From TrEMBL:
Recorded name of the encoding gene: bioB
Organism: Streptomyces lanatus
Catalytic reactions on record: (4R,5S)-dethiobiotin + (sulfur carrier)-SH + 2 reduced [2Fe-2S]-[ferredoxin] + 2 S-adenosyl-L-methionine = (sulfur carrier)-H + biotin + 2 5'-deoxyadenosine + 2 L-methionine + 2 oxidized [2Fe-2S]-[ferredoxin]
Protein name, entry field: Biotin synthase
Known partners and oligomeric status: Homodimer.
GO molecular function (one): biotin synthase activity
Cofactor note: Binds 1 [4Fe-4S] cluster. The cluster is coordinated with 3 cysteines and an exchangeable S-adenosyl-L-methionine.
Highest classification ranks of the organism: Bacteria, Bacillati, Actinomycetota, Actinomycetes, Kitasatosporales
Length: 405
């Protein structure tokens, strides 16, 4: 297929595909799916070998958010039966992190619900970061606290944070359909602040909210412009009690095409399969490791993932290896550049799931806008809760029960 040969060549050269080429990947047929995966897999192996980076989520503060992100089970007005608690203490967070690290994770992602942190919250998270770093040599820490005010990114960096996550989630033109309490520009501003403070930027998207192919390509090209080091690709987890609970728009095949498109547009960037991996890829998860070089271990913020042990078995069975703390995730040219897809000057590209700030979770398009026709298969809307696929987290951080890492 000429398209795939062209995309492989461009990916190996870190050259930006055209928008038409990116759209064509999303439009490929099921007959061509394995060829698409094989082609994007060549690009993945060129820059990341067969390594899989494991990340571990610690939800520092769950629920009770004043924002209205439609995909999020922690949003204002959510009736989802999620865990609700306020800030974990530093030792509690460190204990939760230790479980993920023992399971093979090398990065801990500290996430808190809310519009953004107060300066007192930054103090609190700074103490938590220092505690985790003191107790776990070599751990990478990423903070995900919402919109940042001036100076907060610098303070997190000084406390030892390595990275900051804030997702764009969807295209600029549809952003107002999923959230009204803050803007797309607010999100871009926070990613820019994190980058400027010397934090490794992590920013990604949520697919399955009823968006069109054009929206998906738009957000991925915008991410490349922002040049994060890691791009988390979330697949909407339609949580009961959120406005997007009925948005079951994804198939495993579409998820694979989306991941392949992200890999071609952001060839040398950590592409992470985030929330919704188990829900939407299901038995096709191992195939997706040919596209993404990073996943979350165990549970998500407010919903359950498959057991950490099953993640490790899947990686080994598929012929991949867990990336160690002595291995550098990014290709040398990006490390030398300090962060970012340094090679291209045009676009660059990095969390998790089902509820929460920026990185995780899933939603679906906000009730106000009709989903684009091309995005939603006729069978998409499921009127019945999929309790077989979506389970609210009842263990780990914020509970007395052990996590499943
Ligand atoms: S994504 Fe973050 S800001 Fe939006 S409702 Fe959820 S916790 Fe609040």
């Amino acid at each position: 297929m000429d398209l795939l040969n062209t995309l492989v060549d461009k990916g190996l050269r870190r050259e930006l595909p055209t928008r038409e080429e990116a759209l064509a990947v999303l439009a490929t047929s099921d007959d061509d799916l394995l060829d698409v995966v094989a082609a994007a897999g060549k690009v993945r192996r060129q820059w990341f070998g067969r390594r899989v980076k494991l990340n571990y989520l610690v939800n520092l503060k769950s629920g009770l958010c004043p924002e209205d992100c439609s995909y999020c089970s922690q949003r204002l007005g959510s009736t989802a039966g999620i865990l609700k608690y306020t800030w974990l203490k530093p030792d509690e967070a460190s204990q939760a992190a230790a479980a993920g690290l023992a399971g093979g994770a090398k990065r801990v992602c500290l996430v808190a619900s809310g519009r953004g942190p107060t300066d007192r919250d930054v103090d609190r998270v700074s103490e938590t970061i220092r505690t985790i770093k003191d107790q776990n040599e070599g751990v990478e820490v990423c903070a995900c606290l919402g919109l940042l005010s001036d100076g907060q990114a610098e303070r997190l960096r000084e406390a030892g944070a390595d990275a900051y996550n804030h997702n764009l989630n969807t295209s600029e033109s549809t952003y107002g359909d999923i959230t009204t309490t803050h803007t797309y520009a607010d999100r871009v501003d926070t990613v820019t602040k994190a980058h400027a403070a010397g934090l490794s930027a992590c920013s990604g998207l949520i697919a399955g909210m009823g968006e069109s192919d054009e929206d998906l390509v738009d957000v991925v090209y915008s991410l490349r412009e922002l040049d994060p080091d890691s791009v988390p690709v979330n697949f909407l987890i339609p949580v009961e009690g959120t406005p997007l609970a009925k948005e079951w728009n994804l198939t495993p095949q579409r998820c694979l095409r989306i991941l392949a498109m992200v890999r071609f547009v952001c060839p040398d960037v950590e592409v992470r399969i985030a929330g919704g991996r188990e829900v939407h890829l299901r038995t096709m998860q191992p195939l997706a490791l040919n596209l993404a070089n990073s996943i979350f271990l165990g549970d998500y913020l407010t919903t359950e993932g498959q057991a950490g042990k099953a993640d490790l078995e899947m990686i080994a069975d598929a012929g991949f290896e867990v990336e160690g703390t002595d291995q550098v995730t990014l290709p040398e040219h990006r490390v030398d550049a300090g962060a970012g897809c340094g090679s291209h000057g045009s676009a660059g590209c990095g969390s998790h799931e089902g509820a929460g700030c920026g990185s995780h979770e899933g939603g679906g398009v906000c009730g106000t806008a009709a989903p684009a026709a091309s995005a939603v298969p006729a069978t998409a809307v499921n009127e019945q809760p999929r309790t077989d696929l979506v389970a609210v987290r009842r263990r780990g951080a914020g509970t007395d029960l052990a996590p499943n890492a």
